[in-house]
Amino acid sequence: MARTQRLLMNLFDGWFQLRHRFPKTVLDEMTRAIAGxxxxxxxxxxxxxxxxxxxxxxxxxQDAHRRARQVFAQLHVWDTEHNSGVxxxxxxxxxxxxxxADRGIAAAVTQAEWDAIRDRMRSCFARGDxxxxxxxxxxxxxxxxxxxxxxxxKAQPDELPDRPVLL
Length: 167
Description:
Distance between the termini: 23 Å
Strand order of the largest sheet: 3-2-1-4
Order of helices and strands: HHHEHHEEHHHE
Largest sheet: 4 strands, mixed
Strand content: 5-15%
Structural class: alpha/beta
Radius of gyration: 16 Å
Shape: globular
């Protein structure tokens, strides 16, 4: 995507609809879905939604993947006991979804599996079903984590906030 097109998207696309697409009720449902699923595995899911990138960041070449890596570090998704954090990063203005798994998970779950979840979420979002896309992505991530990082009989520590972060 050309830098000029990205700049225009970040200036004028539907970024201003953040609270409409992700109202408190949907954020509450996402929080419950993340918290509930984390009881069944050792993974930690963090969901971050950003309306747009700053114009200067776009001009300097920042893209969704680079920004997602920054958010991964900023939110300390890497800072879990089992290196089992997963970040869902949504950049609304550019219609981008990036899923980053920490090294403990990346060793067992392929990027193709995360990309399949991303693609299904993108399809829901394209239809305007933001709630369904987010909840399905979370549920599919829990299924992967439960398969590869099952919990044990002990209560799993909650190392990252369950509430989606609005950037």
